Amino acid sequence: MFEKLRDLCLINGISGDEDKVRDYIVSQISDKCEYRVDNLGNVIALKKGRKTPLNKVLLSAHIDEVGMVVKYINDDGSLMVDSVGGIDPRVVFGRQVTVGRNNIDGVIGGVAVHNLSKEEREKAVTFDKLTIDIGAESRDETEKLVSLGDSVYFKFDYVELSGGFIKSKAIDDRFGCALMLELIESELEYDTYFTFVVQEEIGARGAAAASYTVNPDYAIVIEATTAADIPLSEGEKSVCRCKDGPVVSFMDKSTIYNKELYNLAFDTAQENNIPCQTKTMIAGGNDAGAIHISRGGVKTLSVSVPCRYIHSPSCVANKEDMVNSLKLVRLIADKLYNRQ
Question: What are the Cα distances from residue 157, in Å, to 69, 108, 313?
Fold first, then answer.
């Protein structure tokens, strides 16, 4: 699973520009299950098991990542950008990026600190005050390399830290994709649907289309979620903690999760000695928001790996949490196939 996670994290694929991620996923599953790619770009797969279940169970993860898009080229050749997905602009200043299909290297900059007023220095920078320097000296020079609408990606390595931690861009949600690839490669007892969906970071758009197509009875959304277990974040502000196991949410800004499944997840974790936790703040959202209201409604659960510095160039998550998430998802699914 971790080899696939590394491969996936190093592929660029912001919302609406996920082709390379999708190509990798298709290359991994093409001889292992039935699949199709819909008009929006979702990969919808059916892995046949030994038996046909009573209930149709869907596992889903999104393939897109946060990033930026070029919206204007200045006279001096620098680029103006806006965010694609929820990015705190404080985490991008000074970062190295890759721009467009030509993979043009650049650096994000802005007004030098000595040119800021006292009031400006006390406020967080906004995207309209940031530019990308690709080394060009004029608009004409830049236009030979970059076009409006080009995607902008963080340029960072996949690094294994001490304590079993991994640092990389796009752990949200290439982890969920890697977990599902692991399950598709395994022998399953029952037929299972998998959707690798696009455009989660800009409003769960791919999940809305894919879940309508599959029309499942139950769905498990596999995600990464904010862990703020760092200094100066205490109590409920920590949200969840790395190394405390997978996160099962009871509510976020887009979903009130099915209470039956919420309890089932914790009971299953306890029965199998798997650490498990919930979030201590009601914030954010994921593809469950679209899936649980699809067609006539879907009983939906979310299982997430806790991730520090999410939506930044340097997401940090723990391998043990990832392994326990895989175990828990498999066990919960086993209980849903024939649940009355």
Answer: 21, 17, 9
- Residues taking part in catalysis: 200
Domains assigned to the chain: 2-65+169-336 (3.40.630.10), 68-154 (2.40.30.40)
pTM over 0.90: yes
Instruction: Name the pLDDT band for 70 (thresholds 50, 70, 90).
Output: very high
Report d(CA 106, CA 92) in Å as an integer. Answer: 12
Residue 256, number of CB atoms within 10 A of its CB: 14
Find all residues with CB under 8 Å of 310, minimum gap 6, and list them. Answer: 171, 172, 224, 225, 226, 227
Q: What is the DSSP string of 47-110?
A: E--SB--SS-EEEEEE--B-EEEEEEE-TTS-EEEEEES---GGGTTT-EEEETTTTEEEEEEE
